[in-house]
Design brief:
single chain, alpha/beta, Spore Coat Polysaccharide Biosynthesis Protein SpsA, Chain A, 10-stranded mixed beta sheet
């Protein structure tokens, strides 16, 4: 089973200097390593060529973000399994083995995520994917080990193999045939939550998404866009609404969309109270962008064969903010 580890890079020489060695040390015997460059203007590609000549390089013509960046690059990667790996991740010994073994064992498993821990505090789960992703009634993503901004300590509670709803784009394994069957990522997302859409569409086709807790990686998080960056707020709020528009089943569609618009308004007020008006403005811009894209995503919605039922009984917003349930195991 040919495996390719593909690292998307944009002006990330410092990250490559720090994290590429672990990928090479713990992956090169089982996988071919690629750096897919999104038209960087720094010297990162020259650095890779000089110091790691065994690493294959793909140079994209433009910086199309995460979604287009991978879509463009993966046309040139010959492998059965793609591992899409952020440039700010430290991998560990034998991290590939249990994941490749599961792919060999389960033909219907199309996407897998390892355990994601915080590089800055390796005792805790990391925000981007933690112990595997889920989505609530209103389309809000959350994870085992991370609900909103509450991060749990890793006490081995998620050392299992488990079916999940979405795998983090920070470290996402996918069968190449499924990736191309789905036409890759939706490039209208640019970045953030496009992996949730991809996993949603894969499940619409009858495939499964899994988490493998015996494989561990450490993620810095926010290396490209920090949490305080309003552009990250914009992308997360807009793309979450696009996910809902594209994928929620018909009988729930209007209820979920209008509820989300209301809840986003409350989030905007919360940012104002916290004296972070720039994030309130980011939500407003996200909504205007959503309105502009609404008809386009309705058309995309019609092309899907079915709209998968998801967790229609949980509002993680209500449980977290009203009931104070901050751990995954406490959610009902």
């Amino acid at each position: 089973m040919k495996t390719a580890v593909v690292i998307l890079n944009w002006n990330g020489q410092k990250l490559l200097e720090q994290f590429l060695p672990s990928v090479i040390n713990f992956s090169s015997e089982e996988a071919t390593i690629y750096v897919a460059d999104n038209a960087s203007t720094d010297t990162s590609i020259r650095f890779v060529k000089e110091h790691y000549p065994s690493v294959k390089i793909i140079e994209n013509a433009i910086n199309g973000g995460y979604a287009k960046g991978y879509n463009d690059a993966l046309q040139y990667v010959d492998a059965d399994i793609y591992c899409l790996l952020n440039s700010d991740i430290e991998v560990t010994k034998n991290w590939l083995t249990p994941i490749i073994n599961l792919f060999k064992k389960e033909e219907n498993t199309a996407i897998i995520q390892p355990k994601l821990l915080d590089f800055k505090d390796k005792t805790k789960f990391e925000y981007a994917g933690a112990g595997g992703g889920f989505i609530d009634l209103f389309g809000y993503p959350y994870c085992r080990g991370r609900v909103f901004n509450h991060l749990e300590k890793d006490n081995g509670q998620f050392n299992d193999v488990s079916e999940i709803f979405w795998a983090s784009g920070a470290c996402l394994f996918i069968r190449s045939k499924v990736y191309h069957q789905l036409d890759g990522f939706d490039e209208d997302y640019f970045a953030h939550q496009e992996e949730i859409d991809l996993c949603w569409r894969a499940q619409n086709k009858g495939y499964q998404v899994k988490y493998v807790g015996s494989s561990t990686v450490y993620h810095v998080g926010g290396a490209t866009l920090q949490e305080t960056n309003p552009n990250k707020t914009f992308l997360n709020f807009r793309n979450s609404l696009l996910n809902v528009t594209k994928n929620v089943p018909k009988r729930w569609f209007l209820f979920v969309v209008f509820s989300r618009l209301l809840l986003d308004g409350i989030a905007g007020i919360k940012f104002l109270i916290e004296l972070r008006p720039i994030h309130t403005w980011a939500i407003i811009k996200a909504h205007f962008s959503f309105y502009r894209n609404f008809n386009t995503f309705l058309k995309k919605r019609k092309k899907l064969q079915k709209k998968l039922d998801y967790n229609l009984h949980t509002s993680v917003v209500w449980q977290y903010f009203a009931l104070g349930r901050k751990k995954f195991e406490d959610l009902k």
